## 1
Amino acid sequence: MSIKPKAAFFSFTCCEGCQLMILSCEKELPSILEHIEIVNFREAMTERSEDYQAAFIEGSVSKREEIKKLKKIREKAKVVVALGACSAIGGLNCLKNRFQMDYLRKEVYGQDGLKFKAFETIPARPIDSIIHVDYYIHGCPIPKKEFLSVLTSLLMGSVPRIVNHPVCVDCKIAGNICVFEKGLTCLGPITRAGCDAVCITYGCVCWGCRGPVDDPNTAAHKETLLRHGLSADDVSLALSLYGAHKTKTTSKN
Ligand code: SF4
Ligand code: SF4
Ligand code: SF4
């Protein structure tokens, strides 16, 4: 009997929507489980094991104890994969970084928010600001096909392919009319593709959930956004929806 590699899925600060995407691979899961043993997956099973080779980590870091937990996972795992925007780029959680942490504790938990250690929080950050990450699966949530492709590559011992062209390419392939022609604005030109430009196809715009392509020409795109009617503040807000980790935090925590 062959020994299957063991994979563990961990959840840090997030909505757990990326784990849900994996659970929705119901057609593929039976064959996945022929090739790997899942030893940790909070959304799907109660058993826990500290013995694993691959760790898939969802969520950003926003508490001190998460830093310790993350380092422990890195010590055990041969391969660490960041699962989704929260983990890979900090994601929506980093929107809080523009406020003082004490202010947030009071806003969320009331006056008692400052009393209890359980409510302590630090500016949110992606996991690669704490540990080395081997591979990234982008998106909010991750696309199923990308998870399956990365998993297949890892099982075959090859390097997963990370898309590095802008969403505009996917958008053209999908046959969409550019939203700039409709008087809207979009972060597609500087955002990493791989989502089939799903938001544009379904009538929205790209907000950059998959993070930037390598070497994005952000300066040029800022000019484009300004030329299409956004104010400088609008541009900063648009870029910081998913990219807030890169903006300066106001907290001393
Ligand atoms: S990346 Fe999006 S879907 Fe995934 S856990 Fe974070 S907020 Fe949820
Ligand atoms: S709608 Fe957005 S993603 Fe599509 S081509 Fe225009 S700028 Fe690019
Ligand atoms: S179109 Fe943009 S916001 Fe929508 S899934 Fe793709 S990268 Fe994310």
## 2
Amino acid sequence: MKIKIIDKNERKITFLLEETNPQFANALRRISRVEIPNLAVQTVDFSKNDSALYDEVISHRLALIPLVFNQKDFEPKETCKCEGKGCSLCEVVFAINKKGPGMVYSKDMKSSNPDVKPLYDNIPIVELGEDQSIKLEAMASLGIGRSHAKFNTAVSFYRFYPSVEMNGEIKNANECIRVCPKHALDIKGNKATITDACDLCQECVKTANPKKIKITGDNTRFIFTIESVSGLSAENILLSATKIFKEKAQEFEKEMKKLK
Ligand SMILES: [Zn+2]
């Protein structure tokens, strides 16, 4: 298996994955989305809410705010030594206490842990009118996207690497090049080349006259993208997914050995 980074920043990573198969790529995709423990608001205690939004709506909005945290510092509540009661190892409390008029933003969430905060400061939560105020405490803990979408860590997807074959000359080669929405195709005489921007849309194949062009996806090479929707960096998500994948395989191996 080979990996080559195509593009990378804090929030998004795109890489070429080679010498593997769709089953492996798909497992990695699913794990990177919904199996990595992530922090999100689970319960909210309201002392006061004069705003136009119901408590439930505000709770829902708070739960969707991505939180920056250090993975090593947190335990899932179920396995924490506090036995699920809630402690600083498994829980973070955000307090909001604000008087209107004005918008309550994510930056108004005062964290009980200085290392945990909303990813962005300017996410609007609720607008307060004249003489309205809000006071609440929101408890965040770890969970995974498989149990609730608010814990999803990333949007991950892959494309099959394109390959092109030509069998003889095409009369309207220039037209085929022009219709490609990704500008990925080039044809010179009997030879076609394609870049990895191709998403196998087949527009060139439909246009070719006569039909002497074939575009297929290589099912051993994938252009893989992971875009973070959480407080974790894209690279961190990829590394965590790999670690979880390995743990699952080891667990499977352990169970298999018991069957002997
Ligand atoms: Zn605990």
## 3
Amino acid sequence: MSLRIREYHPGDTDAVLDLWNRAKASGYEPVYGLAEILASCEKDHAVVAVVDNKIVGAAVGRAAHEQGWIVFFSTLEEYRRQGIGSSLLSALEARMAPLGLTKLSILVPDSQEERKTVLGRAGFVDRNHLSYFEREIPVSEKERSILQELGGRLLPTDLWPAIAGMQGEKEMLERRLVLPLSDGALAEKYGVEPPRSIVLFGPPGTGKTTFAKAVASRLHWPFVEVFPARLAGDAKGLAAGLRDTFTRIEDLDNVVVFIDEVEEIAAQRGGEPPTALQGVTNELLKLIPMFRERPGRLLIVATNFIRALDDAFLRHGRFDYVIPIGLPDTGARESIWTRYIPSHALKNVDLKELVKRTEGFSPADIEFAARKASQRALEAAVYSPESPPDGPSTEDYLVAIGETRMTVSPEMVGQFLEDIEALARL
Ligand SMILES: Nc1ncnc2c1ncn2[C@@H]1O[C@H](COP(=O)(O)OP(=O)(O)O)[C@@H](O)[C@H]1O
Ligand SMILES: [Mg+2]
């Protein structure tokens, strides 16, 4: 047998493909996908074993800083146990080591004993107690470019647990939105039609935007915020710009579309002559039923001022739920305070007092007061060194609370309660 190990050439693709197919047919569970392997053949490092002009094995690696990874390593069944594997590994190492690698690594499924033997012979050590985890990033290449164009993105996966307090709202969104949307088959079994569009309303700073993003994060769906008033730059006009945006969104499998402060464009119509924004309102009214036709998507609109919305906007059939997001209760305020007070300072702070003194504060007001207190304590620590240096004190927080103006006035609270009576739909 005349064995030759040589560099991979572009013409070897079919042979590598064949090795991959045969390896898979014999139970090889690949960690790296075929596309990754072929990309590494082209751009990284690959060697093939040739016997009588036939490719019988290959090893493919990629360098990542100081550690190299073998992304594919296989020899045809009938050529095994002849040292070909070892030769491939040492040839690959010889090419990759000069890049400054200190380690060459490979992942091997537990079931592949034979492969482990070959690696052992080539000097690889089995590092036990490692488990392999992976997560599919739920966006395709095509979707990525649409998202980029629309300014959309996948949000961090932990926004939902990061919402402090608001247990009632959270539980209700979890049940009404997340449950049927994340398990469509289960919803169907019970005849539940998953929601397609909802309204969040409530005074400013209560967390409507935060909730919209958290729902997208919770569902692992990309988040696209549409700014109708900013589509003005579109040469065909606002309404056409909005329509184009919704057409692009059609190509996404899953998405949460968010329109904030929707009262800006969907305020009561009327007035002569009609303004440019009225055209946008009409367009949006037409787009929502179309948007609702396809599953796997959710439109969330938010407003601080629901009573200003055009009646047609809230008419049945456009929105599944009209959900109030109100001021945080005692428990929620406590969680929100805990979030913003540095953890080492918490033990010295009279949390109960802060919670009591911030009745009527929105989460945004609490955040503002907390930042103010931190700034005050920092300045004191640096400029008057006699002050205790271990973070903001209750005093700092109480002063900051005194200097924070509540965003939501008692009148607004009153109106909000009326709006819940008249317009909420849960
Ligand atoms: N439940 C919450 N826990 C912690 N921070 C919150 C919470 N709700 C809102 N915030 C913070 O308050 C600020 C205002 O919230 P936002 O969602 O923009 O309110 P809205 O959209 O209702 O005006 C944001 O900085 C947000 O991070
Ligand atoms: Mg907002």
